[in-house]
UniProtKB/TrEMBL annotation:
Pfam families: Ras. Coiled coil: none annotated. Gene3D superfamilies: P-loop containing nucleotide triphosphate hydrolases. It comes from the Eukaryota. NCBIfam families: small_GTP. The lineage of its organism: Eukaryota, Sar, Stramenopiles, Ochrophyta, Chrysophyceae. It comes from Spumella elongata. Keywords: Nucleotide-binding. This is Uncharacterized protein. GO terms for molecular function: GTP binding; GTPase activity. SMART domains: RAB, RAS, RHO.
């Protein structure tokens, strides 16, 4: 499922619904599941204890595109992050036909940033459509950037932004624990997916 389109009648107007397959990748313990659960629940759910993701967890959330009659339905695959060299092969079945990717690292763990290139490369290797993926690069646990001498952040924001740019992705920082900036990367992916859909329709007459 790369994308889909359907319509939904409301009392005022017909809403057009686009479907976007989004995969979340990154090392274990960076907060992918917490980020997803916080977004899907509207900030009401945050896992108190760490539970290892096996394979992938699946969620669906609708995102309204401002000033349009369009809703992007995000089909979110939260992929496991343990043992990166093994998981790249195990996760490959979830990567197929993805429309967007969100790579997540922990700002307090430099190694998780260094792994991002491998995660993104693994995803791109599975793609054979020739259509560039919509990409968001997320530094989670930004509560550790408190600006004090006791700050636990190991990754400089400038370095992280440069890494994101080198991968052709847009950079965000979030705190799933404090529900800070959680919606922004998902909203960006939905809006960028819609923008590219519109461009493709205008150019070819077909959706992506």
């Amino acid at each position: 499922m790369q994308s889909g389109l359907r319509s939904m009648e409301t009392s005022h107007k017909t809403m057009v619904i686009l479907r976007c397959k989004l995969i979340l990748v990154g090392d274990a313990c960076v907060g992918k599941t917490a980020l997803t659960q916080s977004f899907v629940s509207g900030g009401t759910t945050y896992p108190k204890n760490y539970l290892m993701t096996i394979g992938a967890e699946f969620n669906v959330k609708q995102v309204t595109i401002p000033e349009t009659n369009v809703i992007v339905e995000l089909f979110i695959y939260d992929c496991a992050g343990q043992s990166i060299f093994n998981q790249l092969d195990l996760n490959s079945k979830y990567y197929e036909n993805a429309s967007a990717v969100m790579v997540v690292y922990n700002v307090a763990n430099r190694d998780s940033l260094l792994s991002c290139n491998k995660w993104v490369s693994g995803v791109k290797a599975i793609q054979n459509s020739g259509v560039p993926l919509v990409g968001a690069f997320v530094g989670n646990k930004c509560e550790f950037r408190d600006g004090s001498i006791d700050s636990r952040a190991e990754v400089d924001i400038l370095e992280a932004k440069e890494t994101a740019e080198s991968l052709g992705m847009t950079y965000f920082e979030t705190s799933a624990a404090n529900n800070i900036g959680v919606d922004a990367p998902f909203q960006y992916i939905a809006e960028e997916f819609y923008r590219r859909y519109e461009e493709t329709v205008q150019t070819t007459g077909q959706g992506i």
